[in-house]
Please model this.
Amino acid sequence: MRQLSRRAALALGAGGAAFTALGWNENAFAAAKEAAEAIAKFTGGKTATQGKVSIELPEIAENGNTVPLAVSVAAPMTADNYVSEIMVVAEGNPNPGVATFHLTPLSGKAEASTRIRLAATQNIVVVAKTSKGEFFTGQKLVKVTIGGCGG
Amino acid sequence: MAEKPRLKLPKEAKKGDVIEIKTLMPHIMESGQRKDKDGKTIPRKIINKFTAEFNGKPVFTANLEPAIAANPYMQFSAKVEESGTFKFTWTDDDGTVISAEEKITVS
Model:
């Protein structure tokens, strides 16, 4: 029953208000808070600059079990200045971590694609770190029709 | 037990080319969030790390969480300056490491 009510909540959209009515408010906020903590840990408390990061995701994911994700960073990949890490965080999953990619100048391009699981309609946040210690970030909202974290 | 990974990358390239590499590893990626019929949580079992190196030098590494879909697919790039061998590894939660290699000729 718990799962059902959760899906019902998702159908209403991921607005905080909808969750309050169904008692999921705390969990939704807990997930977003955990996501923010994971990002703060990654940046060492620095604020990431908006931009340079592009995220390709479907606008509406019908099946949350496998959602194609492509990330890229518009930054050089030279020996002394390159994107060294790209972290992907899902704000609305039971665990916000999705993946962290480690790149080197041999990567040639700062990009990666994979397929991810999304439990609900949510924001995907990507934070990129350069070898010079700069941080860039971007986010994208995905609407998920059927959640994909089992249950 | 371990199934064979699928690799897709060019066999030949020109020096300095940035090539595209696609890999897919058949794996259940059990998230640790699901419950069985009796309501017991099914223990997590995922590929938690993927690495790609070329002639022994790291190219791309991914630390993976349960939010990666079953049969983890990875697509990334590599800049090739010389002929050599790509080596890929997938590390399971149980410690098993599956590896695969592919050669490329760079002219």
User: Anything to note?
Assistant: Residues 6-33+43-96 of chain B form a domain with the Immunoglobulin-like fold (CATH 2.60.40.10). The first strand of chain B starts at residue 6 and ends at 8. Chain B has a mean pLDDT of 95.
